[in-house]
């Protein structure tokens, strides 16, 4: 059944893309005046194996995967030089020749083939001089969250430096149409997780929203947004998925401002109506008083929140306060070193837990590193990070570098990584992971061919080899 649905949706979106190309032909009376077609392609071959959840090293899951990303963008559809109307799209196809039919049956959500229209929309800029219209599958990214939906977004600009936005459509979720849910990893099913450990049916969700924004201000950006996601259907068995209702309702604010040359401030916040309170707040200051020195301080408050039908809402969560500081010292624009630190405080909140609101768990971390770019295409970099306190101690050491030669047609990049885990409370979690990565590339007109080899070793899997072949194409017609 799923194959039939995927095939059906693939046919539908094939028609959509055909109509898009046909519309360009109709709207382009003189083909000698170029409508610009931009095509991008990335083909990846990926061979590796990984352990099952039982950690049975004698029976790993073999993955022989091919991923295809195909972008088709059409500019200046009206062919008048204004580029007022254009079309953007990106398709992704994943297939796995290593997964057997039996494994696909045993592991729920592990698929041999996935087809996804990541986005595909027409965009009309400044229609009638003040209105932007975007129709199709599109992302909305703001202070609230990120959502992928099939619908329409309108943005109206006023002469008084502010505008009004409205959007509506159906959320593009896993198992609804040609979509791989961007919020789920391979091997996990879609749908809400129920208390009994089963997964509910994926229901259509209506996405609506709106907001205000500032425009035509060179050094100031401000967006106020509202979004609501509501389930439209209660399903075949209301006891499994619950009655249709509001799944998410939030309001967000994000802004930035350049106070003076070299001094910037930014902030953002999100209020969750389901929680009845602020679920996230971010504020930061970045200053570069002289060329050689740049400093940054950021504060982050986060209360983990989820959709209304998520099983995770039955747990008590601690809000987190986090302060980050970083200083970067430049020798030139191509050579710099940095040092940074952060402090996180996981504190109790009587709105989500019965614990003492004065209890606080600290987590501290430090980092340092640097980068040297040797023109035109060579570089070396190093980064060291350590964090300890909440969840034990983790130390990361990362070295990398690369260069191009033979007239910039060949390139080599390498990276070595070490991660050390130490937990006094749970000794079984202690361990060390080592990894190395080498990539060889051939650059040619309009693209690149790369072969990448990764090797990693840990206590759970002493030998983990992964080989990737990547072909990138980028050209205009």
Q: What does this molecule look like?
A:
- By secondary structure, the protein is mainly β.
- The chain has 3 domains: 1-116, no CATH class; 128-287, no CATH class; 391-477.
- The chain is built from 3 helices and 22 strands.
- It has a 22-stranded antiparallel β-barrel.
- The relative contact order is 0.08.
- Mean pLDDT is 80; it is low at 1-31, 181-189 and 235-243.
Task: Give a summary of the structure in a few sentences.
This protein has 477 residues and is mainly beta. 8% of the residues lie in helices and 58% in strands.
Keywords:
single chain; globular; 22-stranded antiparallel barrel; 22 strands; 477 residues; 8% helix; mainly beta
- Element string (H = helix, E = strand): HEEEHEEEEEEHEEEEEEEEEEEEE
Q: Major β-sheet, in short?
A: 22 strands, antiparallel, barrel
The share of residues in helices is under 10%
Strand content: over 45%
Number of helices: 3
Which consecutive residue ranges, at least 5 long each, have pLDDT under 50? Answer: 1-31, 181-189, 235-243
| Structural domain tally | 3
- Our Rg estimate from Cα atoms comes to 25 Å
Structural class call reads mainly beta
N-to-C CA distance? 39 Å
Q: Average pLDDT, to the nearest integer? A: 80
Characterize the overall form: globular
Total number of beta strands = 22
């Amino acid at each position: 059944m799923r194959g039939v649905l995927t095939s059906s949706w693939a046919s539908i979106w094939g028609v959509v893309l055909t109509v898009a190309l046909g519309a360009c032909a109709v709207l382009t009376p003189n083909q000698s005046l170029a409508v610009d077609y931009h095509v991008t392609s990335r083909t990846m071959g990926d061979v590796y194996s990984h352990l099952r959840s039982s950690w049975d090293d004698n029976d790993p899951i073999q993955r022989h995967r091919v991923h295809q990303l195909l972008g088709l963008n059409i500019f200046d559809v009206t062919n008048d030089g204004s580029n007022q109307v254009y079309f953007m799209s990106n398709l992704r196809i994943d297939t796995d020749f290593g997964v057997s039919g039996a494994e696909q049956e045993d592991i729920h959500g592990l698929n041999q083939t996935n087809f996804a229209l990541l986005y595909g929309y027409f965009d009309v800029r400044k229609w009638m001089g003040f209105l932007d219209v975007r129709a199709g599958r599109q992302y909305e990214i703001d202070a609230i969250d990120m959502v992928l939906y099939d619908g329409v977004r309108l943005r109206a600009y006023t002469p008084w430096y502010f505008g009004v936005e409205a959007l509506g459509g159906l959320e593009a979720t896993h198992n609804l149409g040609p979509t791989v849910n961007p919020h789920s990893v391979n091997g996990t099913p879609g749908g809400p997780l129920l208390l009994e450990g089963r997964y509910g049916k994926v229901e259509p969700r209506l996405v609506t929203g709106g907001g205000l924004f500032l425009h035509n201000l060179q050094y100031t950006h401000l967006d106020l947004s509202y979004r609501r996601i509501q389930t439209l259907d209660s399903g075949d068995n209301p006891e499994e998925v619950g009655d249709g209702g509001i799944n998410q309702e939030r309001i967000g604010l994000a802004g930035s401002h350049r106070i003076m040359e070299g001094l910037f401030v930014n902030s953002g916040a999100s209020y969750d109506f389901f929680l009845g309170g602020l679920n996230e707040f971010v504020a930061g200051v970045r200053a570069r008083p002289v060329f050689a020195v740049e400093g940054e301080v950021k504060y982050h408050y986060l209360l983990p929140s989820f959709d209304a039908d998520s099983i995770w809402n039955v747990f008590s969560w601690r809000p987190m306060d986090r302060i980050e500081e970083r200083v970067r010292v430049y020798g030139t624009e191509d050579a710099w070193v940095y040092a940074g630190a952060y402090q996180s405080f996981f504190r109790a909140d009587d709105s989500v837990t019965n614990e003492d609101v004065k209890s606080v768990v600290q987590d501290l971390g430090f980092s340092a590193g640097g980068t040297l770019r040797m023109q035109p295409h060579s570089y070396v970099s190093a980064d060291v990070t350590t964090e300890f306190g909440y969840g034990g101690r983790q130390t990361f050491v990362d070295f990398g570098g690369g260069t191009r030669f033979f007239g910039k047609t060949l390139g080599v990049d390498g990276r070595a990584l070490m991660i050390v885990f130490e937990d006094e409370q749970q000794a079984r979690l202690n361990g060390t992971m080592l990894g190395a990565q080498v990539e060889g590339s051939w650059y040619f007109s309009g693209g690149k061919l790369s072969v990448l080899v990764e090797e990693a070793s840990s206590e759970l899997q002493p030998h983990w080899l992964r080989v990737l072949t990547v072909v990138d194409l980028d050209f205009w017609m």
